[in-house]
Amino acid sequence: MSIALLTSRALVGLQAPEVTVEVHLANGLPAFTLVGLADAEVREARDRVRAALQTAQFEFPQRRITVNLAPADLPKEGGCFDLPIALGILAASGQIPANRLDRYEFAGELSLTGELRSVRGALALARQAAHSGRTLILPIANAPEAALVQDVQMLPARSLSAVAAHLCGHTLLAPHDGATLAPPPAYPDLADVKGQAQARRALEVAASGQHSLLLYGPPGTGKSMLAQRLPGLLPPMDDREALESAVVQSIEGSFHPERWHHRPLRAPHHSASTAALVGGGSTPRPGEISLAHNGVLYLDELPEFDRRVLEALREPLESGHITISRAARRAEFPARFQLVAAMNPCPCGYHGHPDGRCRCTPEQVRRYRQRLSGPLLDRIDLVLEVPALSVAELQTTASGESSAVVRERVARAWAIQQARQGMPNARLDAAGVNRWCRPDVAGDALLRTAIERLGLSARAYHRILKVARTIADMNGADNIGAPHIAEAVQSRRGPGEFN
Known about the structure:
Blueprint: E1 3-9, E2 18-26, E3 31-35, H1 40-43, H2 45-55, E4 64-70, H3 82-92, E5 104-106, E6 109-110, E7 116-117, H4 122-132, E8 135-139, H5 143-146, E9 154-157, H6 160-168, H7 197-209, E10 213-216, H8 223-227, H9 239-252, E11 265-266, H10 274-278, H11 288-291, E12 296-299, H12 307-311, H13 314-319, E13 321-325, E14 330-334, E15 338-343, H14 362-369, H15 374-378, E16 382-385, H16 391-395, H17 403-421, H18 430-436, H19 441-454, H20 458-474, H21 482-490
Helix pairs in contact: 2-3, 7-17, 7-20, 19-21, 20-21
């Protein structure tokens, strides 16, 4: 027959909408036309497909070839359409049977030798294919990743020739030989941290309620060391959370099956642009906040980030997702991350140091701290100073609790919150705060005094109540008392209040 129809999928945000690959052969001067809103990567498939067919000992038709990727208004990018285009040419020219093509979905990039190379977004492709009732044929390198999706029918292949032999009924493709086995997560241990009892406590509070945290102090006090240990304090990811995080990383091409069930820790450099941090591009792609979904986003040297980049964090910190809109395209990505940031107290980093080594002027210190806007600081639940350790503390052996011990207490606090309101305290909205975070008489009086003296905003008021609710949950208390309010207020000493 002179026409063939195959099914593949495009990537739009986290979705993988169905794409019909139509291949038509007609008489006339030899030509290869590709239509259907394809980007440069897809248009280059013409040369890859031609070379792959010829090196695989297939005949490349010397006819007028037209390939349409439908629907025409859906953007297509990437190399995943190489395999269906090549198979469509073979089916339209009668070199393979076309009567079984409707049972399958195809995705794969072709090398010039006809071998199949891995593609981005295999998890998204497999998740959508599992609901279609068709079998997904994809490169063998993507099999461990796609196998993480339950109920997906999948056949991995090494080459174009292997797929053609399967469709002809000569040598059938074998299903994937088993589920992906990932080693248990191995996070840095909190027991390695020397001293810093207050910082360890703040880290546990942040983990127990999924609160955002800002650490400030001179260089070398362990701020980065503490932040890197936060993922190890969080309870293990369930399958739903793991799949959500893995799909985002798969779309970006950075997912590794051996990291399955590992909470992500993203630490972008302070030179990162807005698009790199929150996502963007002419074809919207996820940024660092989405790659940190269900994990931790660590921003070191916070004031060194461009102010516009930091202000872009305000909305996703509240909503847990980010919508990227372009003139013709729009994509939404999840961004439920836990923010941990670190900064120095002044440009040189030693403001208030006992040896008086800081030489920054008051104006330099003020301008440095004002790089962080009030609305951004309002969205950070815990702000804690990490002081320099003494020589005696540095020379002692670390004797604090391990991450495993702390993680058990964090898990109990999470269980209390899930049973009471079905979400962590940090995600409570105004109605949830009014319902679940009401302090007792003594706590309310203390909170009123704190608001009047510190001039706190309504958002800061709600966040203090959320942190106090978490502290009460950690202590197993049903009601929020004055001690819980006092610790929550003390944990919000902002950068403008450095000693």
